[in-house]
Amino acid sequence: MNKEVLLTVLGVIGTLGGTLLGWLLNAYTYRIGRTEIRGTFETRITVPPARPDDAAGGTEKKEYFIKCCAKNSRQIAVLLENFYFEVQKSKGAKIVRISALNEKDSCCCVGNVQVSARTAMAPQIIEPRKLQFFTVRIDTTDPEIQYAKLTLCAYDEDGKLHKFLVYNGLKVKRPPAHTPRD
C-alpha cells in the first residue's frame, strides 16, 4: 500500500512539475524573438502624356520606394508606427531624417477638382510567423538617395525605437561618368 501511495504522490508531483516547467518555458519563448524588415530599392519614373501644344512633352518625375518584407519570429503580433528613414550618404557623414510615406497619395474630389495629399506611412501590424509585404515611399527627389544607406525606423506599442537596415547603397557601384563625343 505504501508503494502505491508513494507512486501516486510522485506522479502528482511529476505532473505539477512538468506543467510548471512547460508554463515557464512557454512564457519565456512567448517574449523572445525579433522582428526583421528587409527591403529592395525601387525607382519609378513617370512621364505625363504629351499635349498637342507641347512638342517636348511633360517632364519626367522620379519617385523612390523601398519594397519591404517583414518577419516576426515572436509568438505575438508587433505593432510598428511613426515610420521614418535615417539616410547616410557616405561613411562618417551626418545622418539625415526623411519622412516615410504611403505608396500612393490619398485623393479626393472637391467639385470638379481632384485633390491629392501625401500621407505618412500607416501603422503596420506584423503577424507572428508570417511574411508581410508593404511598400514605403521615400520623401525625397534627390537622385543620390540610391547611393545612400537607408535605415527604416519605427516605434513599437511600448514606444521602443526599432531600426532596420533596409538598403545599403554605399555598396552600390556608381556608373562611370558619361562624356559626350565631339
- On the 0 to 100 scale, the average pLDDT is 83
Oligomer: single chain
Question: What integer value in Å does the Rg equal?
Answer: 27 Å
Percent of residues in β-strands: 35-45%
Low-confidence stretches: none
- Tell me the number of helical segments per DSSP (H or I, 4 or more residues long): 1
Query: Percent range for helical residues?
Result: 10-25%
Principal-axis shape equals elongated
Give the helices and strands as they follow along the chain.
HEEEEEEEEEE
Number of strands: 10
Classification by helices and strands: alpha+beta
| Largest sheet entry | 8 strands, antiparallel
- Give the CA-CA distance, first to last residue: 109 Å
Please supply descriptive tags for the structure shown above.
single chain, 16% helix, 182 residues, alpha+beta, 1 helix, eight-stranded antiparallel β-sheet, two-stranded antiparallel ribbon
Mind sketching the topology for me?
Blueprint: H1 2-31, E1 35-46, E2 61-72, E3 78-88, E4 96-101, E5 106-110, E6 113-117, E7 124-126, E8 131-138, E9 149-155, E10 161-168
Antiparallel strand pairs: 1-2, 2-8, 3-4, 3-7, 3-9, 4-8, 5-6, 9-10
Walkthrough of the structure:
- This protein is of the alpha+beta class.
- Helix content is 16%, strand content 42%.
- The chain is built from 1 helix and 10 strands.
- Strand 5 (106-110) and strand 6 form a beta hairpin.
- It is elongated.
- The model has no long low-confidence stretch (mean pLDDT 83).
